[in-house]
Amino acid sequence: MPNPSLVVTAPKITKRLAASRGQTELGWLHSQHSFSFGDYYDPAQLGFRSLIVLNDDIVEAGGGFGTHPHRDAEIFSYVISGQLEHRDSLGNGRVINAGDLQYMSAGSGVRHSEFNPSKAAPAHFLQVWLRPRERGGAPRYAERALGAAAKSDALTLLFAGQTRDGATEIRADAEIYFGKLSAGKTLAFAPGTGRGVWMQVIRGSLDVAGEPLAEGDGAAIEDAASLAITVKADAEFLLFDLA
Question: In the chain, where are the structural domains located?
């Protein structure tokens, strides 16, 4: 009989392929939803742990989201291409460039708008919401100029529940990394005990724990002591380590 302490269980991986995502088409907005959002509702896709929204949005030139309210959500946007202009009731007003991030903790309530300031080029970005550890608190805002500063063939910690390694502190028990790996590279990641991982591929293609993922694909991963990420074509991705 094998020693139970030596039994290694394989991670459980549930893929969310790009083509299977929900869609919203508004003319000026082309949005793909990994989880239920707005008019798109799927009872089987209500989020993963504290990750509740992951939208892949393309906003046509001059289009955008008018001023609207949020509360009790940790929200960030990663601009893949083009530009995104943010304005909010805290007095912040910035244009976020490709490769950079904008973060807002809605807390007890905030109003904001997001527009594509270009008259010619579309804006492509990921919009992410996390459930906070607790409700309320003063709203707050931060930006992260990642761009060329992202580490090559490594993970860059963007956000964390506690400040460390240059990460922006957020009000959620989550660590969010940006990965930028060259073809043929392999990277190992060890999530904390009892935690889950969500992988979202931005560009390129890779294998995670032997499962292939391509551009736009995501995957929920449970019961993983360690994950091997092997890149097949130069790749950029987000990795969420979630309680």
Answer: 4-242
Which CATH number applies to 4-242?
2.60.120.10
Express each pLDDT in 219-241 by its tens digit: 999 999 999 999 999 999 999 99
Interatomic CA distance for residues 122 and 30, integer angstroms? 10
| Tens-place pLDDT, residues 96-143 | 999 999 999 999 999 999 999 999 999 999 999 999 999 999 999 999
In 3D space, the residue among 99, 1, 26, 49 whose CA is nearest the CA of residue 35 turns out to be 49
Q: What are the C-alpha distances in Å from 130 to residues 133, 219, 233? A: 9, 16, 29
State pTM to two decimals: 0.94
